[in-house]
Structures are given as structure tokens and as C-alpha cells.
Amino acid sequence: MLYVVPDYYKEFHCIADKCEDTCCAGWQIVIDKKSLAKYRRIRGKFLPVMLFGVNYFTGTFRQDKEKRCAFLNDENLCDLYICQGEKSLCKTCRQYPRHIEEFEGVREITLSISCPEVARILMERKTPVTFISKEKDGEEEFEDFDLFLFSILEDARKEMIGILQNRKLPIRVRTLLVLGMAHDMQVRICRQEMFDCFEVMEKYTGQRAIDFAEKYLARESTQNQSFTMAKEVFEYLYDLELLRENWEVLLQETECLLYTNEKIPYEEIRREFAEWEKANSDIEIHLEQLLVYFLFTYFPGAVYDGEVYAKAQMAVYCVWMMHELWMARWLKNEKTLTLYEMTELVYRFSREVEHSDENLKQVEKRMKNIWLNT
Ligand code: SF4
């Protein structure tokens, strides 16, 4: 079995009570069967605590009114862990923030940026991320697993990450090349012309594609188009399952600041923010790291549904929306923004979108038939 992890994987250590948020609040944690059976066997003085904290009918941890796990104490530490030891944690709690994607003979393990500590590591990172593979004992076969498509997707992802990490090009050009590649691959996959996908990869890694992308962006959309599209796609976020109450407040605030602002038009905010970014932050590096994160995590999942284009678009959409949140916060702060605030918005976005399978599915579905004009 091949295990693949990002090179910062071992840098992560849970900072527990020093964490500015907690992973034990805001979403319903489903307990795996083995842990649930173990919890049923607990006796003695911890039994009433277990009965209070675990809903054995739904197989979940109970939560208080603020959606905090019943075992989370006032110091933001887990009482189950403290009293029953690390092994008592259920699979989800043991794994988090590790996110595992399973393919035949391959496990890809990423660290979710919904954890503030992981988001910090990624946002402070300056050098391009690489991925480490390690072969370990164990083989398996999946029923109906399309190994050929999977190998195409792996090759394509490698090329896409190479494009995203080409810092000689502006990030908008890199993004457009990735979307173009995904789009053209989708056409070939739908026509079952699988071998042609290699030509597509070659095309988008060549100089002609770069020249085309640069020219396209130079003559690209009128100002109103970019406002209309940004407003339209931002509104998708309201349709998602709400995990935390304060998320909706953030969305409304962002909407007022950017899209219904009577004092400053959207395009002017965008232009000024772009100037500020150039002078004040490593914005292109942050965008690159986030795009690589989303693309690496979700793109190969297309082996199960063939939705190559929607998965690449979803990566771009998520990063674009984070950028909109940064821009609104910058405006609210009277045109300043710290890396700490950017990181906070990154993990809050990830918590809302990535921690609900339903939300991920919905975003991907929306991305199928549009062309993101970032
Ligand atoms: S969110 Fe991350 S750092 Fe915070 S408690 Fe959970 S795993 Fe630890």
C-alpha cells in the first residue's frame, strides 16, 4: 500500500487547550461502531458521564446549546481523553485533522485546514509544498476501480500542481491554465478518448498555452462581469448547510461590504486591495498553497465520478471565496489585514464547507456547468 502525505505532515501537533478554537464543537461527531461498543462496556463511576455524553441511539456525542461536545470541559480539553486515555477516542477524534482519501492500493492523507494549527502551518509556509510517498505492507482490490483513469488523474494533478507552483507566472495565469486543462480533459473523458488526456496535459504545460492565458486575461471581462459573477457565486454559500451560527453573520457582513456597498463600488475595492496585496503580503504564495491543498485533496476523487472539471473548479472556487472574505475584512479594518486574520478566515471557511459532505457535494454540483471568471 502506498501512503502519500504533504511534506509538512509531521510538523503538526495538536495544541489542545492553547487552540484558539476547538475541533470538538460546531459539528456532530459520529462515533464508529467499535468505539460505540467500547463505550457501552464502560462501568463504574464514569458510567453516568458516558450516559450523559453519548447518544447511543444516534451513535453520536451529545452537544450543549453552543454545539460543544458534552465531553469538552471549560479548559477546552476532552474529559473522555483525560479519564479514559487516548485509546478511548473514537475514530474521528483520533484521526482529526487528518483527512484520508482511499484509492486502490493508495491512501492519501492530508491535514485539514479547518484546524487552526494546520491553517497556520500552511499560511506561514513560504516554499512550495511537496508530497512524500511511502510503501507499506498490505494490498487490496477495489471493485470496479478504474486504475487507468486513476493514473491519468495522478499525472494530471502532478502537472497542475507544477503549474500552480510556477512562481514566474502570476497566480491568475496559473489558475486559468489549470482550469483550462481540467476543462479540456473533461471533454476527452466524456467522449471516452482517454489517451487524448495526455495531449491536453502537454498542451497546457507549454509556452503557447501560457501566451494564450496571458492574452485572455489581458482582454478579459468587463468590470461589471466580474462583479456580477463574484456576487452570484458568493451567494452559493448561503445555500449550504450551516454548521456554526456566526458563519452566517460573517457572510452577511462580507456581502454588505463588498456587493451592496453604496460608498465604494466592488471593482474599486478589488483594485485597491490588489495594490495593497502587492505591497503588503505574500498573497500569491498563500493562494498557491491553498489551491494546491484543495486540488491535491479532492482532484483524484474524480476516479469515482469522472468529474474532473468540477473538482478543479471547486478548488478554485474555495480559494476565491476565501480571498473575498480577506478583502471584506481588509475593508472593515480600514484597509489593513494581518496574516493571523487571514488564517482565521481560512479555517472558518474550511470548517463550514469541508466538514459537511453535503456542502462539498453541493459546491461541486454548482461548479459543473459554469466557467469561473476570477
Ligand atoms: S482544532 Fe486542531 S489544534 Fe485545535 S484542538 Fe483540534 S486538532 Fe488540536
Give Rg in angstroms. 22 Å
**Alpha-beta classification:** alpha+beta
Distance between the termini: 39 Å
Order of helices and strands: EHHEEHHEEHEHHHHHHHHHHHH
Tell me, rounded to a whole number, the average pLDDT: 93
Adjacency order of strands in the biggest sheet: 4-5-1-6
Write down the domain tally. 2
Residue fraction in strands: 5-15%
Fraction in helix? 55-70%
- Based on CA inertia axes, which overall geometry fits? globular
Bound molecules: iron/sulfur cluster
Report the major sheet. 4 strands, mixed
Number of strands: 6
Task: Provide a brief overview of the structure.
The chain has 374 residues and is of the alpha+beta class.
Considering the chains and any ligands shown, give keywords for the structure.
single chain, 374 residues, alpha+beta, 2 domains, four-stranded mixed β-sheet, two-stranded antiparallel sheet, 17 helices, 6 strands, 7% strand, binds iron/sulfur cluster
